[in-house]
Design goal:
The protein has helices at 42-53, 76-83, 99-106, 110-119, 143-152, 161-186; strands at residues 2-7, 13-21, 27-36, 61-64, 67-68, 72-73, 87-91, 124-127, 133-139. With 188 residues, it is an alpha+beta fold. A hairpin with a 5-residue loop joins strand 1 (2-7) and strand 2.
């Protein structure tokens, strides 16, 4: 299972898309949720998607990042505790180091947010056989095995196929919601 998001600041919301895929990355099902940009509801949105897509044969929950949509977050440890399935969070670019500074500047509730973000832990670099470097946080699975799971699902580049597809459909769903919203506002 894989969850990714798509957002634009001006929308005020982020669309989360989840896909359930087979071990060879064939997508079988999809589900969606919405979270607030800069909110604290990222974990809840991910929980809703997982609940819709969960089956006993799901072996891992892959997340396209844990710090999402303008410092909202997805708590992988909470997902692991709730669903009893390994959770791995992947970052495909080198993580930026200014999170603490930005959160303190932007949010009056910064101590709570920083505690939540710090609980995620630091990502561990994983190097694929093809020479890609990805960063992994994991719960219920060793980061090396989480990296190997991602590598097994890579078809095009360094992103596992289920995450790539989830990212694409999240962007499509966001665009559709914007189109529908604009039409409703304009009376069409």
């Amino acid at each position: 299972m894989a969850i990714a998001e798509s957002f634009r600041f001006e929308d005020g919301f982020s669309v989360y898309a989840g896909v359930r895929a087979t071990r060879d990355a064939v997508v079988e099902d999809a589900a969606f949720a919405v979270a607030k940009i800069g909110g604290k509801d990222g974990t809840g949105a991910a929980e809703n998607i997982i609940a819709m897509l969960m089956r006993p044969d799901v072996s891992i929950i892959m997340l396209d990042g844990c710090i999402v949509s303008f410092y909202n977050w997805i708590d992988g440890e909470a997902l692991y505790a709730k669903f009893q399935k390994p959770v791995a969070c992947y970052v495909f670019e080198e993580p930026e180091g200014r999170v603490e500074e930005a959160v303190k500047k932007l949010f009056p509730d910064w101590p709570e947010r920083l505690r939540a973000i710090e609980r995620l832990g630091s990502p561990i670099p994983y190097y694929t056989k093809a020479g890609y470097r990805i960063y992994v946080r994991s719960w219920g699975i060793d980061p090396v095995y989480a990296g190997k799971a991602a590598e097994l699902a890579m078809k095009l580049g360094k992103m596992p196929e289920p995450l790539r597809v989830a990212r694409i459909i999240a962007a499509g769903a966001r665009a559709l919601l914007n189109t529908l919203g604009l039409r409703l506002l304009n009376g069409h």
